[in-house]
C-alpha cells in the first residue's frame, strides 16, 4: 500500500495563492512579441501602422524616468552621507565602463576578422552616390557631440531644463549634489524634505506599476512595426552580418557571466531568470530605457546598495553601451569587407580609438550608430571606403536592436554588481536568496519595492 506524502502547509498555501499562468507578465510579453512578428509578417501595412502603440508606451515610461532617478539617488546618498563613498563609486564605475567597452570593441574586431560578415557583397563604391543623403535623413543631419562638449552637457543649463528634456546625466548630476547637500545637514537637517522625496518616490513607482500593465501592448506594436517596416527578407540579405553580431553577443554575454561570477559571486543565468520580464520587454520594444526603473528596483532588491544602483545604472546608459560598441566594431569591418578593402592592423587600431570616444556620446542622439560609424570611416582615411558606405547598414540596423539592447542591459547590471561588491555595498546573502527564488524581507525604507512587486508574480 503506497503512502501519499502531502506537501507542507506553507507550500500548499503558496501553490493555492499562485496567480494563473496567463497573468504572468513574462507570458503576456512572449505572446505579444510572437503576435507582433506574425502581424508584421503577414500584414506588413497593418504592422507598419502599429508604431504609435510602442511610441505611446515608451513615452509613458520616459516621463517617469527622470524623477525616479532623482528620488532614488537623493535617498541613497542622503542615507549614506559620505562624499568620499560617492566619489569612489563614480570613479570605479567609470574605470569599469572604460575597460569593458574597450574590450567589447576589440572583441568585435576579432569576431569580424574571423567571420568576415561583409565577404561576398562585392559592392561598387560608385553605386553609393545617394548613400550620404540616406544617412543624413536617418540621422536628421545631426552629429555626435565632441568630448569636451559632451562633458559640459552633463551640467544642466537649469534644473528645470534637465527634467524637461529628460537628460538623464544632467538629472543624475543635480541629484548627486542635492543628495550630498541633504547629507551634509545630518541630524540637524530638515527630515521633512527627505520624507517628502521618499513619499514622492513611492508615488512614481506606483504610477510605473500602472503603466507596466500596458507593456504587452507596447511590445506588440513595436515588433509588428519592425517586421512590417523592414520585412523578414532583410534577414536573408544581411544573414552573415546578423549571425556575426548575434554570435558575438552570445559569446560576450558568456564573458559577462564570467566577470560577474569572479568579481561579485553572482550567477548570471539565475539573474537573467530573475529579470526575464524586463529583458523581454526591452527586447520587444528595442529600448533599455523603458525598463530602467524596474531594473534599478530589482538590483536593489537583489542586494546592491541603493546608492551604487542609483549612480551606476543611469551613468552606464551613456558610458557603458557594450552591445552598441560590439556592433560598431563588427560593422566597421563589414563595410570594409563589402567594398573589398583589407584594413591594416594600424587602421583597425585607429577605428577602436575613434569608437572609444564616439560611442560615449551616442545615448539619446538620433541615428547615433550611423554618426559614430561615419566619424570612424572618415578618421581611418581609407579612400576606398567612402563615408556614404554607411548607408549599406540601413536595412539591417533595426534588426540589430535586440542584440544591442540585451547586451547593453546585462552589461549595466553586471557593472552594478561588480562595483557594489568592489565598494563593499553588495549584500551577498540577500543576493543569493533572491536569485534562488526564496522569500526575503522587504528592504527598509525602499520605494523600489513597489516596482518589484507590481503585477502578478510568476
Written account of the structure:
Helices cover 70% and strands 0% of the residues. With 458 residues, the chain is mostly helical. The protein has 23 helices and no strands. Helix 4 crosses helix 17 (306-319). It has one domain (23-436): Orthogonal Bundle (Proton glutamate symport protein), CATH 1.10.3860.
Fold blueprint:
Blueprint: H1 9-17, H2 25-42, H3 44-48, H4 51-80, H5 83-115, H6 131-138, H7 147-152, H8 159-164, H9 168-185, H10 191-211, H11 215-230, H12 233-237, H13 239-264, H14 268-274, H15 276-285, H16 292-301, H17 306-319, H18 322-338, H19 345-358, H20 368-380, H21 401-422, H22 428-435, H23 448-452
Q: Would you summarize the structure shown here?
A:
The protein has 23 helices and no strands.
Overall domain count = 1
Structural class: mainly alpha
Measured by DSSP, the beta-strand proportion falls in: under 5%
Label the overall shape: globular
Distance between the termini: 36 Å
As a percent range, the share of helical residues equals over 70%
Poorly predicted regions are 127-136, 447-458
Main beta-sheet strand count, sense and barrel state: none
CATH-scheme architecture: Orthogonal Bundle
Organism: Mycolicibacterium cosmeticum
Region (Disordered): 437-458
Subcellular location: Cell membrane
InterPro entries: Na-dicarboxylate_symporter, Na-dicarboxylate_symporter_CS, Na:dicarbo_symporter_sf
Notable traits:
mainly alpha, 23 helices, Proton glutamate symport protein, 458 residues, disordered C terminus
Amino acid at each position: 500500500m503506497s503512502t501519499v506524502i502531502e506537501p507542507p502547509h506553507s507550500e500548499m498555501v503558496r501553490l493555492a495563492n499562485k496567480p494563473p499562468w496567463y497573468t504572468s507578465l513574462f507570458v503576456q510579453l512572449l505572446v505579444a512579441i510572437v503576435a507582433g512578428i506574425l502581424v508584421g509578417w503577414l500584414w506588413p501595412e497593418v504592422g507598419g501602422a502599429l508604431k504609435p502603440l510602442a511610441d505611446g508606451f515608451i513615452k509613458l515610461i520616459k516621463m517617469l524616468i527622470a524623477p525616479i532617478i532623482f528620488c532614488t539617488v537623493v535617498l541613497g546618498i542622503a542615507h549614506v552621507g559620505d562624499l568620499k563613498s560617492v566619489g569612489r563609486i563614480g570613479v570605479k564605475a567609470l574605470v569599469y565602463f572604460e575597460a569593458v567597452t574597450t574590450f567589447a570593441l576589440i572583441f568585435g574586431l576579432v569576431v569580424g576578422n574571423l567571420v568576415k560578415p561583409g565577404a561576398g557583397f562585392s559592392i561598387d563604391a560608385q553605386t553609393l552616390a545617394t548613400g550620404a543623403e540616406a544617412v543624413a535623413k536617418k540621422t536628421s543631419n545631426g552629429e555626435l557631440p565632441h568630448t569636451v562638449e559632451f562633458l559640459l552637457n552633463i551640467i544642466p543649463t537649469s534644473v528645470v531644463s534637465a527634467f524637461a528634456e529628460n537628460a538623464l546625466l544632467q538629472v543624475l548630476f543635480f541629484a548627486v549634489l542635492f543628495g550630498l547637500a541633504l547629507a551634509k545637514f545630518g541630524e540637524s537637517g530638515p527630515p521633512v524634505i527627505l520624507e517628502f522625496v521618499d513619499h514622492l518616490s513611492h508615488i512614481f513607482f506606483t504610477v510605473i506599476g500602472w503603466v507596466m500593465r500596458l507593456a504587452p501592448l507596447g511590445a506588440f506594436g513595436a515588433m509588428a512595426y519592425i517586421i512590417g517596416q523592414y520585412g523578414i527578407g532583410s534577414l536573408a540579405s544581411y544573414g552573415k552580418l546578423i549571425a556575426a553580431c548575434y554570435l558575438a553577443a552570445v559569446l560576450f554575454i558568456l564573458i559577462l557571466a564570467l566577470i560577474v561570477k569572479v568579481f561579485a559571486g553572482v550567477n548570471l543565468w539565475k539573474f537573467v531568470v530573475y529579470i526575464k520580464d524586463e529583458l523581454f520587454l526591452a527586447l520587444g520594444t528595442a529600448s533599455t530605457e523603458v525598463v530602467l526603473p524596474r531594473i534599478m528596483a530589482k538590483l536593489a532588491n537583489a542586494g546592491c546598495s541603493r546608492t551604487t544602483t542609483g549612480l551606476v545604472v543611469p551613468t552606464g546608459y551613456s558610458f557603458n553601451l557594450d552591445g552598441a560598441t560590439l556592433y560598431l566594431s563588427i560593422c566597421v569591418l563589414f563595410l570594409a569587407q563589402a567594398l573589398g578593402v583589407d584594413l591594416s592592423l594600424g587602421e583597425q587600431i585607429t577605428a577602436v580609438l575613434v569608437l572609444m570616444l564616439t560611442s560615449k556620446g551616442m545615448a539619446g542622439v538620433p541615428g547615433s550608430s550611423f554618426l559614430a560609424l561615419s566619424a570612424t570611416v572618415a578618421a581611418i582615411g581609407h579612400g576606398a571606403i567612402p563615408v556614404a558606405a554607411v548607408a549599406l547598414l540601413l536595412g539591417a540596423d533595426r534588426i540589430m536592436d535586440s542584440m544591442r539592447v540585451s547586451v547593453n542591459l546585462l552589461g549595466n547590471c553586471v557593472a552594478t554588481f561588480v562595483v557594489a561588491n568592489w565598494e563593499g555595498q553588495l549584500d551577498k546573502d540577500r543576493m543569493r536568496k533572491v536569485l534562488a527564488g526564496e522569500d526575503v524581507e522587504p528592504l527598509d525604507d525602499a520605494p523600489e519595492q513597489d516596482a518589484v512587486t507590481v503585477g502578478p508574480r510568476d
